[in-house]
Automatic annotation (TrEMBL):
Catalyzes the conversion of 7,8-dihydroneopterin triphosphate (H2NTP) to 6-carboxy-5,6,7,8-tetrahydropterin (CPH4) and acetaldehyde. One of its GO terms (molecular function) is metal ion binding. Keywords: Lyase, Metal-binding, Queuosine biosynthesis, Zinc. It catalyses: 7,8-dihydroneopterin 3'-triphosphate + H2O = 6-carboxy-5,6,7,8-tetrahydropterin + triphosphate + acetaldehyde + 2 H(+). GO terms for biological process: tRNA queuosine(34) biosynthetic process. Zn(2+) binds at H13, H28, H30. Binds 1 zinc ion per subunit. The active site is at C24, H68, E107. Gene3D superfamilies: 6-pyruvoyl tetrahydropterin synthase/QueD. Its EC number is 4.-.-.-. Pathway: Purine metabolism; 7-cyano-7-deazaguanine biosynthesis. This is 6-carboxy-5,6,7,8-tetrahydropterin synthase. InterPro entries: 6-PTP_synth/QueD, 6-PTP_synth/QueD_sf. It comes from Zymomonas mobilis subsp. mobilis (strain ATCC 31821 / ZM4 / CP4).
Length: 118
C-alpha cells in the first residue's frame, strides 16, 4: 500500500552554478510543495500504513527549517535545486520514517524532482 502526505513552504533561493545569464542565478522565491510517499503493509488493527500524524510530527521540524528562509543559507542546501532539496529532506527523515519510499519537491506546479533513495 502507498500513502502520500503533502506539505507546503515558502522560501527564497538562487542557483549559484547556473550561467550568469540564467534568471535563476538571481535571488527569487517559490511556493514549494513537498510530497512524502510511504509504502508498506496496512496494520490490521489501525488500518494505517503509518499514521499521518506521525509523519507530520517527524517532518514538522524539518519543514520549520525551510519555511521562510533563504535555502542557500541552510547547511547542505548551498545549491538548492529541487533535486538537492529532495535528497536533503530524505536524509533528514529516512531514519525516523523507514517506510519512506519517495520525496517529491515541486518548485512550481509544473516542475518537480522525485527522489526514491539510492
Ligand atoms: N532540473 C532543474 N532545473 C531547474 C531547477 C531545478 O531545481 N532543477 N530550478 C530552476 C529555478 O529554480 C527556476 O526558478 C524554476 O522556476 P521558474 O523559472 O519559476 O519556472 P517556470 O519555468 O515554470 O516559470 P514560468 O515563469 O512559469 O515560466 C530552473 N531549472
Ligand atoms: Zn527557483
Amino acid at each position: 500500500m502507498r500513502i502520500t502526505q503533502a506539505f507546503t513552504f515558502e522560501a527564497a533561493h538562487r542557483l549559484p552554478h547556473v550561467p550568469e545569464t540564467h534568471r535563476c542565478r538571481r535571488l527569487h522565491g517559490h511556493s514549494y510543495r513537498v510530497e512524502l510517499r510511504l509504502e508498506g503493509a496496512v496494520n490490521p488493527e489501525t488500518g494505517f500504513v503509518v499514521d499521518f500524524f506521525d509523519v507530520e510530527h517527524i517532518f514538522g521540524p524539518v519543514l520549520k527549517q525551510l519555511d521562510h528562509y533563504c535555502l542557500n543559507d541552510i547547511p547542505g542546501l548551498e545549491n538548492p535545486t529541487a533535486e538537492n532539496i529532495s535528497q536533503w529532506i530524505w536524509r533528514k527523515i529516512k531514519n525516523d520514517l523507514p517506510l519512506l519510499a519517495a520525496v517529491t519537491v515541486y518548485e512550481t506546479p509544473h516542475c518537480w524532482a522525485e527522489y526514491l533513495g539510492d
